[in-house]
Amino acid sequence: MALDSGKPKFKYIGTRPNRPDGLDKVTGRARYGADISAPGMLHGAILRSPHAHAKILKIDASKALALKGVKAVVTRADFADGLSGEDWNIQENCMAGEKALYDGHAVAAVAATSALIARDAIKLIDVDYEPLPHVTDVDAAMAEGAPVIRDGAADYSVPEGLHPNVVRYFESGRGDLDEGFAKADLVLKRHYTTEAAHQGYIEPHACLAQLGADGKGELWCCTQGHWYVRQMCAAALGLEVSQLKVTPSEIGGGFGGKTTVFIDPVALALSRKAGGKPVKLVMSRSEVLRATGPTASASMDIKMGMTKDGKITAASGTYRMQGGAFPGAPVDETTVLAFANYNIEHVHHVGYDVMSNRPKQAAYRAPGAPMAAFGTESIIDEMATQLGLDPLEIRLKNAVKEGVRATYGPKFPAVGLIETLEAAQSHDNYAVPLGPNQGRGVASGFWLNWGGDTSASVAISEDGTVAVTVGTPDIGGSRASMALMAAEAFGIPYENVRVHIGDTASLGINEPTHGSRATYASGLAVIQSAKECIQKLSKRAAEAWGIDPDAVIWEDGFARPSGPNAGEFEPMSIAEIAGNMSSSGGPISGHFEASPETYGGSFGTHVVDVEVDPETGRTTVLRYLVVQDAGKAIHPSYVEGQFQGGAAQGIGWALNEEYIYGEDGRLQNPIFLDYRVPVASDLPMIDTVIVEVPNPGHPYGVRGVGETGITPPLPAIANAIAAATGVRFTKLPLTPPRVLAGIKAAKNA
Amino acid sequence: MPEIHLWSGLRHLAGGEEIVAVEGNTIGQMLDALVAKHPRLEPAIKAGVSVAVDGQIKPNNRASKVSEESEIFLLQKLRGG
Amino acid sequence: MSKHHVSATVNGDPVEYLCDPRETLLDCLRDHLGVMGVKEGCGTGDCGACSVTVDGRLVCSCLVLGVEAEGAEIGTVEGMGTEGNLHVLQEKFIEHAALQCGICTPGILVAAEALLKKNPDPSETELRYWLAGNLCRCTGYDKIIRAVMDAAADMREAS
Lengths: 749, 81, 159
Prior knowledge:
The complex is a heterotrimer of chains A (about 750), B (about 80) and C (about 160). Chain A is α+β, with helices and mostly antiparallel strands.
C-alpha cells in the first residue's frame, strides 16, 4: 500500500476545497441546537438565584403549577441521589441543592405549552433564601475569614493550614532556585492578574429532550462532545448510559464551553416529569454569561533570573486560580505549561485551585495556558527591555527543541518553536517602522494537544463512494479535513467522500472536539479505517484475479497487480470492486477504536503592533501576525482560520473582556453590550504563517492547531502597549480607563 | 527496574523520594507497585495522573508497555480544552 | 392573552401569523413561520445573528415586535439565493472559508448584502464599521472581510 511509504507527496492534503457543509451554512438551512422541534413539544425555562450565596430554605411551586399550560416543575429533588466527585459537581451546577452558590445558579425549572407561559411560570415560583456572605475574588477567597463555599471539597493534595476554599494544590519543578537566581545578572519579580473571560460562542446552549418513565431517552443538543453529554446526563438522572441517545446538532461555537452540560439534564428531568413529552430548552445570553463556564481568573507571582546576554537561569511562579463554586480551575495545565517554552534548569511552580461564588468554570481554548503565558512572556519582555535585548532573540536563545528536557519532566520530541520564532523574525511585519505612540509586542505560546477516546467508521457504498462517520462535532470545518484525509488515503476525489457526525448509538465512545484533537485523532481514525477498507478492497481484487492478496497494491483508487510477477490484470477501480461487493463476500467497511497517544504539541509566536491614544488610553491594533506549527496543514484555510480566531479571542481577553462583579456578588455585565467581545472594526487583518514541522506520530504529520493561538495574544498585546507607552501593565484587561490611569500615574511619578 | 520520576508535589507522599524504582512491564503494573511502596500516593494516582514514557504523554493507558530503559515521568492529569 | 393577526411578506412570499404582543419578529419568524436561518445570539440587539431587512432596512429582528411587521416586506438569508443560484456573497463565503461554526453567517450575509446595495464599493474600514454589529467569535473577521470585498468586486464587474 502506498500509505506511509517514503516521503508523502499529497494529491488532496494541503488543497483548499469548499467545505462539504458550506451550502447548508450559507443558506440558513443548517440545523443548530435551537432549530428543531418535535410534535407535542413543551418549552422549558429555568429560575435562577439572584443571590451570590444563599441557603435555599423552601421552594413553593404551587402557584406556577396552577398556571394553565404548565405541565411540570422540577427542583433538585427530581434528580438522582448519591452522586460523588465530578458527577455531583455537574449535577449540583445544573440544579442547586441546599445552597445557591453564585448569581444565576439554577434553583427550579418549568415546562409549559409555550415559551411565554414557561417564562411567566418561573416568576410564580416562591423561593425562600437565607443570604450568606459571599466572595468573588480569588485572593479574598483564600484569605482568613473568607466565606466557605463548601467545607470538605479539598482533595488529598492540599496541605494543612490553607483555607477550605483551596481545593487542589500543585507543586512541581526541578533544580535549585537559589543557585539559579545567584547565576543571574538580573532578577525580576512581578505580580500579574487576568480576569475571567467567557468563551463567547454566539449560539446559546439549546436542546430538545425526551425521557420516559422507562428510563429511555433521546436528546438533541449543541455540544462539542455528545458522549460526554450522555454520560453526564445519565449520571445526573440515574439512567443507564446506553438508554440515552444523544444526537449533536450543528454547533454554533464552543471553544471548550460546550464540553460539559448545563441545561440538558434539566430538560430531560422536565420531560420525565411531564409524562415523557419532549421539552425544548434554550438559554438566553444573560443565562449563558451568568451560569455557564467562563474560564478561571488568575492571580500570579512570577520571578525570573537572566544573565545579561539573555539566558534564563531560573524561574518560579505561584498561580492562584478561581474556578467558581466548584473544583476545576485549570491550574494543573497552568503550572505544567508556565515555562514550557524554555530550557530552564532551575524552575518551580506552585498552584492553587480556589473556589468562590462564581459560576463553575469550563474549559476555554488552551485552558490555563493564556494566563501562564501572560506572566512568563510579560516578565521576559520586561527583562529584555531592561537588558537592551531583542525580544525574539532572547526567546531563540532559550527556546526548547527536540531532545531538550521540558520544565514538566520528559524530553521534547520534534517541536517547532524555533521555526516559528525564525519565521516571525524574517516576516515583513517585524520590520515595519513604527510611529509615535506605537509599539510592537511579541510573545510565544504552547499547547500540548490531546488524543483521547476516538471511534470512527468508514463504509464503502455500492457505487464506490465513501461514507465516513466520526464522533467529533464539526465546529470549524473538520468535515473538510476528514474528507481530504479519506480522499488522500483512498486516492479518490474529495467529492466522493461524505462525512457524517455520528450520534451516540452509531459509534463507540468518543471524547469531544476538544484539546485540538479532532483533526489529529478523528483524522488518524479515518485514515486507519480507510486502510482497513483498502486491505479488504485489495483482497477482493486478488480473489477475482486468483492471486495472492499481498501481490495487490492500491494506487489512486485502483487495485493493481504489484508487478509483472503478480500477473497481467487490468487495474480494478474502487467502484468496480464496490459494485460487486455483495456477490464477492459482502459489505466492506473499516473501523478504528482507540485512544491515540502520538499527538504532538503546537508552538506559536505572535507579533503585534498597536497604537495607544495618550488622550483616551484606547488601544488600536494596527497589524497582527500569527506564526504557528501545524505539523501538516490538511486544509490550510481552516488552519489559518484557527490561528486568526484564537488571536482575536486573545485580543479580546487582553483588551476588553472581563467578568465584573458588584459588591452584591452579582454579575454586572451579563449582555454582549457590556461583555464586549471584539467586533470587526476593532481588528485589522490577521496575517498568518503556517510552519510545518511534521508530527512523527500522525500518518500525514498533523498537529492539532485549535488552541495554541489564544495563548500568546495576552502578553503580546501587553508587551506592545508597554513599548508604545513606556508603562508596564500587569493587570488585564487593558481597557482605555486602565491604560489612561497607568499613563497618568507614570507621568506624575 | 524502571524508575518513575515524581513531580515535586508528590514527593512528600513518597517519603521525599524524587525517583522511585518499581517492578512492572506496563504503566498499570508500575503504578500499582508505586502505590504498594508508598500507600500515601494512592489518592493522587486514583485522582488521575498523566504518565510520560520517553517523552510521549500517555494519559490513560495502563496497558502501555514500559521497559528498564524507559524514562518515566508522572505529570498532573492533563485535559483537553 | 389574545393574539394579533399579522400579514406580511417574507422573501417575496405572502405570510400570515398570530402573535403574542410580547413576541419579537425573530420569535415569529422562527416559531410561527419556520424561518430558521434567523438566529438568536443575544436577544438584545448586540450580536446581529438575527439580522433581517424590513422594507429594505437592515434591522435586528430581536428588537422588532412581531406585530410591527404588519404589511412589511421582510428579507432573510433564505431569500438571498437558492441552491444552484447562490448570491455572490454566499459563494464567496464558502470559497474564502469565511465561516467556521456558521451561526453568525446568515446575519452577516444579510448585513453585507444590505451594505453593498447602498455602497457597492466600500473601503475595508467602511465594511468593518458596517459589520461591527455582527459578532463572529470564530474567525477574527479576516476571511469575512476578504469574502465581502471580493464579492463586491465581482458584483461591480458584473453590473
